[in-house]
Structures are given as C-alpha cells and as structure tokens.
Amino acid sequence: MTNIKWNPVTEKEHIDKILQESQQENQLIFKHSNSCGISNIVKQRLEKEAKDAPQFTDIHLIDVIKQRSLSANLATQINVQHESPQILVISKGQCIFHTSHFDVSLKNIPVHTEQ
Prior knowledge:
This protein is of the alpha/beta class. The protein has 3 helices and 5 strands. It has helices spanning about 10-20, 35-50, 70-80; strands at about 5-10, 25-30, 60-65, 85-90, 95-100. This is Bacillithiol system redox-active protein YtxJ.
C-alpha cells in the first residue's frame, strides 16, 4: 500500500490552486502516462520511496494523455519543457526543481526544496 495521496489534476482551476498553495508550501506535481512503461515504473518507485519520505506523501498527478492540453499549459505557465514522466517542485508560483524519466525519484529532490 502506498503512502502517497495522489491528487488528480483535471482542470485549469486545479493548476491555479496549486500555484496559489505554493505560496505557503512547496507543491509536487507528477506528470504521468499510463501507456508509458517508464512512467509506470517511475510511479511505482515513487510509491515505494514515499514510505521513507513522509514529507512527500501529497503529490498532484497529471495524466498527460487525458489532460494533454492542461499539461502543455502548465509547461508554458511555469516555463519548463513538457516531459513524461516528470516531477516538478513548485514554490511561490515558480518551478524550482524538475527532472524526468528515470531521474524521477523523491531521493533526487534537493533538500532545500523541502518545507
């Protein structure tokens, strides 16, 4: 069983809320594709790693297939090239850390991004 609470992002209003909440606390977004083997492996790894990283148990999830335009709009809004799988750390409305593919790991998020 995973410790992660996946918060599906399905509307632009969700993105706006994430950016607003990032003013108080860093927000993690995972961009995921169910049809991508790498993305599925990475999602499972995040779920395993969360057991040892309680500060990362609340993660926003964008299904890049179902929410293609939303994902593209977010990439433009935070000025980070879209990739999948991809993890983004948002602080004060800005992306302060991102990585993709097999580099996506809670262990790779720098300590200074934690709040």
